[in-house]
Design goal:
Layout (H helix, E strand, L loop, with lengths): L2 H13 L1 H17 L5 H13 L4 H18 L7 H11 L15 E6 L6 H14 L4 E5 L7 H12 L3 E2 L7 H14 L4 E5 L7 H18 L4 E9 L4 H13 L4 E5 L9 H9 L3 E5 L7 E3 L2 H8 L8
Helix pairs in contact: 1-12, 2-3, 3-4, 4-5, 4-11, 5-12, 6-7, 8-9, 10-11
Length: 313
């Protein structure tokens, strides 16, 4: 494993420390307290998962999967369930290479999310990530309604060393998207990332705006691969799940960027999102640095959550 990935794993493990205290310490106490595997044992584990923002559906699925594994492997000692539980949790959050198809094609990526979740910074980090893969990237500042949104995105464009197409504050987002598509096509850009306004308090306006942007892309760039990512704040737990549902109701969502996992006790929301909505968490952020956004690795996430050393993996 590359040193960069090991470094990110260590930051992830550190960032999940509060989630670990909230969930894993509870698991460990149950493993020690019970001398046999029975219904009460499973109920205790399920309750810990639910309290850790894993969600009812995901928690139920995890425990049912664990029960099957215990039967198949003829496990009798509760303490032997730890690794099986890790496997069951991991199975709820799997992401495969096909989920990143947009990285390999000429594509347009719409990024949505309410104010304060880290949308602008995530776009900058994603642009840097893609550029490091050798891709040409262009940003479109189509969040023209939020004060200073364009300035913030411009700062991140400079840090990621990618061009940006902007408009005046309060201007028509559609015109920015139109200009950005024209530029991306003229320069044969690999990935065009569009920042959009996230105003869930006015769903009709949001739906109209995203609908207009999608129509412009369909008309001007029909051959582009389409990706829509919702940025969610991991510290908000179940509220993040509600936001994802709201955005899913107004536009097709293909993936999640989960931010601010460092320092949250609600990291279990990563499992809830996939289970409840069927939308994969594709990227996670565990810091403010430009390199602190990485592809989501369910196995690494669970190992970091359980504080399992990966040095020898």
């Amino acid at each position: 494993m590359a040193e960069e990935k090991k470094g990110f794993f260590k930051r992830l493990a550190a960032g999940l420390s509060k989630t670990r205290e909230n969930i894993i310490s509870g698991f460990d106490s149950v493993f020690v307290a019970y001398t046999e595997i029975d219904d009460d044992f499973y109920e205790e584990l399920e309750e810990i998962l639910i309290m850790g923002d894993v969600g009812i559906k995901a928690a139920t699925d995890i425990i049912e999967d664990l029960k099957k594994k215990v039967i198949d492997k003829r496990i009798r000692n509760p303490q032997e369930c730890r690794e099986l539980l890790m496997e069951s949790i991991c199975g709820q959050m799997s992401v495969n290479e096909a989920d990143y198809e947009f990285e390999k094609k000429k594509s347009v990526v719409l990024v949505v999310g309410v104010n304060g979740v880290g949308k602008t910074t995530s776009i900058g980090k994603l642009a840097w990530n893609l550029r490091n893969q050798g891709k040409s990237v262009c940003l479109a500042a189509a969040d023209t309604f939020r004060a200073a949104a364009g300035e913030q995105l411009n700062e991140w464009a400079q840090r990621a060393e990618v061009p940006i197409i902007s408009g005046q504050d309060g201007s028509d987002p559609g015109s920015v998207v139109y200009d950005a598509i024209a530029s991306a096509k003229a320069k044969n850009t690999d990935v065009l990332i569009i920042d959009t306004a996230g105003r869930l308090h006015n769903k009709k306006n949001l739906m109209n705006e995203l609908g207009k942007i999608n129509r412009i892309i369909d008309r001007e760039y029909p051959e582009a691969f389409r990706e829509t990512l919702v940025v969610l704040d991991g510290t908000t737990g179940q509220n993040a799940l509600s936001q994802a549902r709201e955005f899913q109701a107004v536009t097709p969502v293909s993936g999640i960027i989960l931010t601010k996992l460092d320092g949250t006790a609600k990291g279990g929301i990563a499992a809830a999102i996939n289970s409840e909505l069927g939308i994969p968490v594709k990227y996670i952020g565990v810091g403010e640095k430009i390199e602190d956004l990485q592809k989501f690795d369910a196995d690494a996430f669970v190992k970091a959550l359980f504080d399992v050393n990966i040095e020898n993996d």
